[in-house]
Amino acid sequence: MPPEVDAEDNNCGAHEVTSSPTPPPLPPRRRQPSEGPVQVAPSQSKPTTALSSIDISTLSFPDGSRGTFSTSATRAVSTPNASGYVTPSRDAAAGSDLADSMSVMSFAPTMRPHGDLASLVAGGLNRKSRAWNLLRSQTETVPPFERIELGAAGGLDGFEREFDAIPDNATDDVRLAIFKSKMKHYMILSSAGKPIYSRHGDLSLINSYMGVVQTIISFYEGADNPLLGFTAGNARFVVFIEGPLYFVAISRLGESDSQLRSQLEALYMQILSTLTLPTLQKIFVHRPSTDLRKPLEGTESLLSSLADGFTKGSPSTLLGALECLRMRKSQRHAINNVFLKIRSEKLLYGLIVAGGRLVSVIRPRKHSLHPSDLQIIFNMLFESGGIKAGGGESWIPLCLPAFNNRGYLYMYVSFFDERPDTTFPSESSQEPGASDNDNNGYDGDDSKEEDEIALILISPDKESFYDLKEMRDKFAAQLTKTGYLSLIRSVAAEGRPKIQAIAPGTQISHFLYKSRANVQFCMSSLLEPHTAPSSSTATAAAASDTADKMLARRRLMTLYHELHAAMHAKHAHLKVLHAVREDAASLAWITPVFEFYCIAGPNVSRAAMAQGANRVIQWAKREEERLFIIGGGVF
Amino acid sequence: MADSNAPKPSSSVKLVLLGEAAVGKSSLVLRFVNNDFQENKEPTIGAAFLTQKCNLPTRTIKFEIWDTAGQERFASLAPMYYRNAQAALVVYDLTKPTSLIKAKHWVAELQRQASPGIVIALVGNKLDLTNDEAGAGGDAEDVGAEESGDARKISTEEAKTYAEEEGLLFFETSAKTGYHVTEVFTAIANAIPETSLKTARGPGAAHAASRTEEQRVNLNGPRDSNAKETCVC
């Protein structure tokens, strides 16, 4: 059979980079090339993929026939192979002309659908064999990530234990081993080398590392050549220096420097939100060796839930955008109006949030809300257990650094009672013994968070609690009377739209769509984890379910991070990127209006992806006023 | 018998919880309000506002509880919470000597700056970590971690003596087992003089403070007797 390269015309706009042939899929990126019975033939044509070169190899089947497959190729990338720290090369465009001129139709053996596969299986071909896998993968219905066996690939081995605490009672060696097995570390220290925060490990464990980190950073500081990051083994270290504070992120999850840096920046914002900038500066001006842990006491859990959000993979942080609850324009408008009508004079911002998604906002005309500020608030309310667990209403002084990093605002928070009949816990609704509300902290279980509806009222006046409480009571009564509260609750419980509902029949499995003008994004509901057939016994299923979900989410987000990094690499100016690898195909598309990222199974053709992308984008355009809050209630 | 069918008079009482971080203020409130307990509860941020009713034979008290965060950086906000409060719960951790020192500071601050008639209860929490039979209850597994089985660092006598000197109600409690938690709030409800309740309605009980001030002299009687009969020790 001749080697084939697929070269359909793309229909999704201008390409600076065209991409790999659709089937056959690329082999896993992080493995050594050509193991097993595959013979690597010399490359026959210049690769067209943005991500890797393709070598074509010929393979003999047991029945005597031969097939041609791409095999793993050396990556045309200079970054260390194992780190997963990928910056796709963008010099592949040269080959695109050649590719485009080739025939689409020459996919001889591998395009044959299921029937052929079945006979191969019946023939007792080793299921593990590369040939079988490659053949099986030719069906377009293979969902993304399906072909990765749990724990085996993607460098996510042991990810389900990532968030477990390091046991106190183990020996030092064991503790150290666990510490080192973590894929993600965040450390914060003062420029004097005093530890402030570490996601993993207690002081005795991390102290020496902090010393090393401080030495390395200050060496470069002294040389007037600040250290930004370095790679050691398969881990990427990124350093972020902000005044007297050093932030270090250590990642083996393949995020780019700028992505890690924005995560560190979010941790810095969290610290500012606790202390304000003047306080932070004052502390270190007077005593550079101050132990900042004391002033930050009690916020470790906020930093950790923020950090864990990044490690699990946060589309919101990746895109620097907010997610809203999808709702009819007229309904949102009506809620805004109720909100505005009962507004207290002392109110600065008013928000309704359902499970981390914004429902309604009212704000003064001259102030807008910054996503990084909302991230701090949402993390506090929905990710860390501190406020929810307390029950009742909360009154919280906090600084919103993007709004004003020099002073505190006061935030009134009240969660609407989960029981649909009562509007809020006051008067007679609660009696001792009624404890229907035990939560297990933050375990990444989405379904529970989706239902929680919080009202957030922010005022610059620290004495305005009772005013805002009164506003809340009126608001709750109004929302209940008009039925909007149950509406919000049911919409929130529905969850995110399924991709099949948006574009029926599409091959795309998941997408992110960011509206650049609104700084908001939407996405389809997360992929269902693909449980390995071997673990179908019901016993282990429940326990492994959360772990599977978490892993599936991380894989998805890792891919999005790579796409995002490639699109936003300095001087890249990419508009469209289509990438195929062994386990998934992905497409990114950026215009001045939106950023769009989507994932599909490894064998979905580029044309099919582009078509699906177009449909999703048209949907987003059509639904813009439902998906996004445009303006919000302004007073 | 005349009032047995009539609804009992109901009044609001503003109560504030103060004390060092991690002594169990929120856990006491959670036990009192929801009869619930959470291991390793995350620290309170700012302050939480909760309400709970307490039925006395002659009246109903509706507690409006301000559960404040214990961290040092929130200390400057405390006056906002104890201003006009008719009751305060100053909590310390029986197993942590510094927490009693902090509690004494709070008591002093309250006596200096809060409403003069304020009823203050000193509460030593985490009795389940000690060997006392009353509180240890069913929590042997936790206690077992301690070498001696008794993590108590502050003796009942020491705290009680101090409480008597200052005219405070005194209790040792366990939010974990629920031991003596409701009693604390009932005792406070009892200790609040009726006279100060009549005007103390709603959150903006501004004049309640001045009222109690006028009648300060009368308050000592019931408060002292109460302290004696409800003492844990």
Low-confidence stretches of chain B: 135-146, 200-233
Q: Helical residue percent of chain B?
A: 25-40%
Structural class label of chain A: alpha+beta
Largest sheet of chain A: 6 strands, mixed
Count of DSSP-assigned helices of chain A? 19
Question: How can the largest sheet of chain B be summarized?
Answer: 6 strands, mixed
Question: Largest interface, with Cβ-Cβ < 8 Å?
Answer: A-B, 43 and 36 residues
**How many E strands of chain B?**
6
CA gyration radius of chain A, whole angstroms? 26 Å
Multimeric state: heterodimer
Pairing-aware structural class of the strands and helices of chain B?
alpha/beta
- β-strand percent of chain B reads 15-25%
Strands ordered across the widest β-sheet of chain A: 9-16-15-19-18-17
What does the average pLDDT of chain B come to? 80
Helix amount of chain A:
25-40%
Description:
Helices cover 34% and strands 17% of the residues of chain A. Chain A is an alpha+beta fold and 635 residues long. In chain A, helix 6 crosses helix 11. Chain A starts with 38 loop residues before the first strand and ends with a strand. Chain B has ten helices and six strands, in the order βαββαβαβαααβαααα. Chain B has a six-stranded mixed sheet with strand order 2-3-1-4-5-6, sandwiched between helices. The longest helix of chain B has 17 residues, at 97-113. Residues 135-146 and 200-233 of chain B have low confidence and may be disordered. The interface between A and B is large, with 43 and 36 residues. Strand 12 (393-398) of chain A pairs antiparallel with strand 2 (47-55) of chain B.
